[in-house]
Prior knowledge:
The chain is α/β, with parallel strands linked by helices.
Amino acid sequence: MRYIVTAQSGLNIRTGPGTNYDKTGGYSYGAVVAVEATRNGWGQTDRGWVSMDYLRPVEAADEGLVTDTGLRIIQDILPSGAKNRPGGSNPDTYITIHETGNFAKGADAAAHAAYLRGSSAQAAPVSWHYTVDDHSIYQHLPDDERAYHAGDGGSGPGNASSIGIEICVDAGGNFEQAKANAAALVRLLMARHGIQLDHVVQHNRWTGKDCPKTIRATAGAWEAFLALCGGQGSQGSDPELEAAVDALAGAEIINSPARWKALDYTANTVRLLLIKMGKYVQGD
Length: 284
Ligand SMILES: [Zn+2]
């Protein structure tokens, strides 16, 4: 069964069902996890044990809010009437990619969500639809409304016909992971609105601004980002591994196939997999 992490500060993963067991990692707020077994209020996932107190079941209302990499979009919609929520229709013809340009430590997606609710963002006014960092995605405005992110006026094509995504560049954050999370969001939005890859554009396209700055400053980085949006991993594809993962997922030996394909697992995950495969071979 699938659950969503409700602990704002994240959820510890432990080697056993209790706080006396060692921590081996954590899940981010909003992450979707598959629980395979439960014991005394603890749930076992493919990475270890977590407290069920900080999980809630995935509901129908969550459908469409989870990326193909298992990250849930946290809804933090600005109140109607906010000066930086102009309303007006948006046909979602384009997706515009920005970088926050805020290199301060802690300037993550949650911090930008708080910024958009504050007086300076409303006074500017400035707004966009989504902020993505290395562990979360926040949505600030409905896709079908306009926003003030492209700098091309209230009815310019950037503000009035595109969905604005800000990628965080905060110090200490993993920018490669943030871009991968943004690409997963782009894939979801492309599918939802029928947007083609050639309509995923830089902020630069609308006004000539040097944004997304880091990506623009790095040779090949934009092309690599678009390749990620098209579903190609930056590590290069590994069809042999992917076929094996798909076969194991089909036999219900593993959950979270995307994580296995991304080589994102711990020694304990492999241990659990070996136990499962042993039982499978024995016919249990
Ligand atoms: Zn920008």
